[in-house]
Target: Oxoglutarate/iron-dependent dioxygenase
Amino acid sequence: MADPLIPTVDLSPFFREDDEDGKNKAMEIITQACSHYGFFQVVNHGVPLDLLHKALELSRIFFEYPCQEKLKSSPPSAAPAPVGYGTQPQNSPNKNEYLLMFPPGSAFNVFPHNPPQLKQTLEDLFFQFSKTAVLMESIVNNCLGLPPKFLQEFNHDRSWDFMVAFRYFPATDETDNNGAIQHEDGNCISLVFQDEAGLQVSKDGEWIPVHSRTKLVFTGHLGGQHRRCHSGFEQQEIQERNTQSGETNREKPPLLCLLP
Model:
């Protein structure tokens, strides 16, 4: 399903030589999107779709393990951030469990032993997301007319970049919200890839649903706008009814946030 209200940018010209017209067209869309929206979708982004879907599937398998097995990947008590497996506090309005990682090689990372391919797949995806995010950072820097490498230097410590896979618990009734409440991301840039509709972004007080499963969504504190990973009461009711008799939890897939 198309998302006509959400600007869509084709990044393929930036992977080719001598396609200045394509680059200029993409930069025009990005400039307008950053100025008037604060978010846009990207296609032909260089991240292999088979890798994205593999990461989703392996994450889904992990989240279906018994709680005792998942807790083996909990962060150590001295960890500076909730790396590894965790769940939201019981009184939190956000109802989800998650698996969070810092860049590959970080001493803080805690990976599950099962499924066996999950660790390598997430590390590969982190690497691919990082390449796309760095490219986007450079393009946006130019589109906004900032000094050369301003965003790169502002966001120079990449050791705190993180990627997180979420699974949202099913709603218990028609009034239950099992997504994430309205919020603004605290980081400079977010790249989001979802397995099914759920993400919404806000513009001029209107919440716009994101339907695509093949595009990355770029958001950031660039245009004064904000987004929410929130399914809304009525929207979530529909989504729950469209699953396999409520047996499938909605999982928000890997999300890479590049921190300032």
In short: The domain at 8-258 is CATH 2.60.120.330 (Jelly Rolls).
